[in-house]
């Protein structure tokens, strides 16, 4: 069996100290001569040495690892968030450990415990509404955390989010002024995430200010297009102009499929609006109006806030709200 190479072995062969080798492996080479760096690099190449992240985390004050916990990694919105985090982290020589919680508290708890055991320097988390129970544990380990997309508290914590409430409030007002008579909202459980609650509340408030009411349907995350088709078939009334607002990006494509037989009625009789999904909503027929969140910017800014805090520079504003845009398309009337 081949003998395992250690940092001590690298140091002896390179004619330097273990501390110097450790600094080299962690990218701390500012005060290290090019000749020393070259010797260490050559020995690492010759021995095919691969440092153990777990071992380094036990001995170092920092691992340059960031724990990222996302609610649902399968959608494009989450992909763009993670890409934004990764781009900024990589530029600053940090690496990510990513977990998918499925908005489940027990999953969140498991990821936090495992990531703490791995020695992550800090966390970026898209939290469920129950995550507050885990904040104390993270703080007791002297780890920093930045919440993204949703937050568990508006006070004391660091977070980056978008203006979901304001965006749907303004869009809802536009739609009412367009002369739609009835309004249907389809949403997953709004109490799971603060973001969902902001969206549903914003839409309802827009209607209330104009004396309008809404038929709200809270559906399961795994609801099928067929089930949604049956639901809408029982709700839609021909001759009555109706807006359907889909509050979750993962539900929008299913609702669009459910409306297959009604698309020729858009936008004059039936209007459809949702969130994000621009990878297909700009190419469908008819194209679909969506509120677009700056997901990449959210991730990039969250990483910027966390790493700024880890470095102790305190140059970043700890709480930031980014603006959504509206991509007006054929499923509703056009607006400038």
Automatic annotation (TrEMBL):
Alphabetized, the UniProt keywords read: DNA-binding, Transcription, Transcription regulation
Record flagged with keyword Transcription regulation: yes
Any single GO molecular-function term of the entry would be: DNA binding
Q: What's the superkingdom here?
A: Bacteria
Which residue range or ranges hold the HTH cro/C1-type domain?
A: 2-50
Domain HTH lacI-type: where? 5-60
Q: Where is the signal peptide?
A: none
The record ties this protein, via InterPro entries, to: Cro/C1-type_HTH, HTH_LacI, LacI/GalR-like_sensor, Lambda_DNA-bd_dom_sf, Peripla_BP_I
**Which PANTHER family does the entry link to?**
LACI-RELATED TRANSCRIPTIONAL REPRESSOR, TRANSCRIPTION REGULATOR, MEMBER OF GALR FAMILY
Q: Under which name does UniProt file this protein?
A: LacI family DNA-binding transcriptional regulator
Starting at the broadest rank, the lineage of the source organism is: Bacteria, Bacillati, Bacillota, Erysipelotrichia, Erysipelotrichales
